[in-house]
Amino acid sequence: MDTMDYKTETLVDVAYKAIKKDITQRVLVPGQKIIIREMYERYGISETPIKQALNRLISEGLVENTPRRGVNVRKVKLEEIEELIDIRLMFETRYIEKAIENFNRDEKIRQKFIENLSEHKRLIENVSNVNEYFKNYSLDQEFHQLFMKCSGNNRLLQIYNNLGTHAYAYYVYGRQPRESMIEGVREHEAIYRALAAGDQAELRRCIELHIMNAKKNIYEMFQKDQNS
Question: Which keywords appear in this protein's UniProt record, sorted alphabetically (predicted)?
Answer without folding.
Answer: DNA-binding, Transcription, Transcription regulation
